Amino acid sequence: MPSHDRHALDPSILDEAADWLMRLSEGSVSDSERQEWEHWRNSSPTHRQAWARAELLLSKLQGLPPALAMPSLDRPSHPGRRAAMGKLAALLALAPLTWGSWKLNDWQQWTADYRAPVGERRDLTLTDGTHVTLNTDTAIDVYFDDRQRLLLLRRGEILVQTAADPSPVARPFLVQTNEGRMQALGTRFSVREETGHTRLAVLEGAVRIQVKGIGEQVVQAGQRSGFSALGFDAPTPVDKSVLAWTQGMLMADNMRLADFVNELSRYRSGVLRCDPAIANLRISGAFPVNDSRRTLNMLAQTYPINVSSRLGDYWVMLAPA
Amino acid sequence: MSDTGSAVNDCHLRTVADLYSGHHGWLYARLYRKLGNALDAADLAHDTFIRILASKVAVIEEPRAYLSCVAGGILVNWFQRKALERAYLQALASLPEPEVPSPERRLLVLEALHEIDAMLDTLPTHVKRAFLLSQINGLKYDDIATQLGVSLITVKRYMKQAFLHCLTLVD
Questions:
Q1: What is A272-319 written as a DSSP string?
Q2: Burial of B2 (0-12, 13-18, 19+ CB in 10 A)
Q3: Reported ipTM exceeds the 0.85 cut
Q4: Does B107 touch chain A (CB under 8 A)?
Q5: Which H/E stretch holds residue B113?
Q6: Closest-CA residue to A209 (of A189, A237, A238, A239)
Q7: CA–CA separation, B33 vs A35, rounded Å?
Q8: Where is the RNA polymerase sigma-70 region domain (chain B) (predicted)?
Q9: Of A179, A306, B105, B119, which cross-links A321 as Cys (Cβ 3.0–4.6 Å)?
């Protein structure tokens, strides 16, 4: 055998991935099976890699017009070349495989102190009486000591309602993201961590943002802002949609379909895509996030959108109707 | 290190240059006899040398045997591609007018089909058909079993076999 490529996947894991594809493709999957599959998929980086490959395969099969694809692919085969192709396929199988960068962040959610899985919301009260709501797919660590109350937002979105500190010496309440640190100045606010960017909306009081090497910005009640390692966004007024998630709703006001799809994707596991041809379609309305099937049906009834799914809703594609 | 690398590369380029000057005409003539079309023969001879250039081969003991082998592989792909294109054009021609995709989309679909075609080609006929009925036509396994005249268990085995095969090849 040639030297073992470090990117080559364990055949037994690929075999399991094929088994899952076969089971999920049948469409009718029970909740317990789905959980079993999610557990399998998240059980190691190699499993996730194997599933990334499964998704790549599905993306290639997706969206082909059956009237063209079926007669083209299912044509009678040319005799005599099967053996040659077999050799070729064997050679291809040995070729080194390249992988897209996969998210290191994935394991972090397991080490976080509190976590809300995809599609769920969690309410919790910290030891100082501060109330925190975690939106879908969110992970936080809480570090309280005698000098500070620090909440590390690793991923996702939170709503914080701070309480007066019961300790004799008032400790600052801080929320830290990859991009910077926010200090609550007696307040209610929400923070959302996105890759390379943090979004802040202040409902009551004020929040001071500090970004290392850049400086500070104070955001007052009724304002929203954002920041990255490069600097601050200009504050804009908060609108009512910003806290819709705490009611399990997604509010869209003239929102691009592509943005809507990205938002809805946060609340469901699996793949949700929209055809570039309808990416700029404008969507308005209030949609339930915990029932994405219903939301998609609502969309399909109101807009010229065709919803097609495979693998029992794991893979959903929005196309022009 | 880079000296060794460039020496190896020089050797490779010299080998390919010798191969080209000594045998390109022979390969072209052979392909022309086989295909009966000068343009296709020139294209395939060209593709053959491109593939050899990419291979970094440094020593070739039997130039014509080697050329035949590489060109043979390219020819297999070419025949397969042609067969796919023919079937595709027929399918296009039989579509009702409003369903015919735009020229740009037609080409994109063909490229996508070509990729899948190459992936599925070595699968046994029944396995391939079960896979296509499920993944392209969206049929349930039960219906596929009826259509192919096999048991449900067999359809599931076919599906798994096809998925595993594709997972190994997809990139």
A1: EEE-GGGTT-EEEEEEESS-HHHHHHHHHHHSSEEEEEETTTTEEEEE
A2: exposed
A3: no
A4: no
A5: helix B103-120
A6: A189
A7: 60
A8: 19-82
A9: A306
Q: In what order do the strands lie in the sheet with A305-310?
A: A271-274, A315-320, A305-310
- Say if residues A203 and A220 touch (Cβ distance below 8 Å): no
- The verdict on B91 touching A (C-beta cutoff 8 Å) is yes
C-beta of residue A130 within 8 angstroms of C-beta of residue A163: yes
What does the alpha-carbon distance between residue A78 and residue A119 come to, in Å, rounded to a whole number?
Answer: 49
DSSP per-residue string spanning A188-246: EEEEEEETTEEEEEEEEEEEEEEETTTEEEEEETTEEEEEETTEEPPPEE--GGGGGGG
Within a 10 A sphere around the Cβ of B76, how many other Cβ atoms? Answer: 19
**CB contacts < 8 A (A, B):** 132
State the Cα–Cα distance between residues A273 and A305, nearest whole angstrom.
12
Largest CA distance in chain A: 87
Q: Which two tokens stand for residue A81?
A: 């070349």
pLDDT tens digits, one per residue of A39-72:
998 899 899 999 989 988 988 887 788 888 888 8
Instruction: Tell if the CB–CB gap between A73 and B169 is shorter than 8 Å.
Output: no
Q: Do A75 and B87 touch (CB under 8 A)?
A: yes
User: What digits encode the pLDDT tens for the residues A209-240?
Assistant: 988 888 889 999 899 999 988 889 888 998 87
Kindly report the number of other CB atoms within 10 A of residue A241's CB atom.
14
User: Nearest CA of chain B to the CA of A299: how many Å?
Assistant: 23
CA distance B120 to B112: 13
Question: What percentage of chain A's residues is helix, strand, coil (to nearest 5)?
Answer: 30, 35, 35
